Amino acid sequence: MLANLVFLNHVGLILCADKVKELISKCLQARDMAYCPYSRFPVAAAILTADGAIITGCNVENASYGLTVCAERTAIQRAVVEGYRQFTAIAVTCDIKDRFVGPCGACRQVLMEVRHTYLL
Ligand SMILES: [Zn+2]
Questions:
Q1: 71-81 vs 17-31: helix axis angle to the nearest 10?
Q2: Residue 18: which H helix or E strand, with range?
Q3: Which partner from 1, 40, 46, 83 sits 20 to 30 angstroms from 92, CA to CA?
Q4: Residue 87 and residue 118 in contact, taking contact as beta carbons nearer than 8 Å
Q5: pTM (2 decimals)?
Q6: Per-residue model confidence (pLDDT) at position 97
């Protein structure tokens, strides 16, 4: 189910359909790995690097809610640790089927931090 999939891409960048399908597939797979015992709201993200690698993330909750890390930030942080600095797109999904849910403010801020690394 592709419900509520958010696909963010730099304006003007064209991605091949196969890469988009792969990005979405890995995003959906990562959602199954979410650690969300408190909210029971699994979220996943998959970020596409400039050289075609896909790094995934999922939400990782904590009993101290402020320590919870969203899927988008998990994916970006994993990518940075693995040496990636340039990104072309990110897909985000959760399990809400009939409504759009966008990234939170913290994730939007982190996405803004790496926006200059999107390829044109
Ligand atoms: Zn977030």
A1: 110
A2: helix 17-31
A3: 83
A4: yes
A5: 0.85
A6: 81
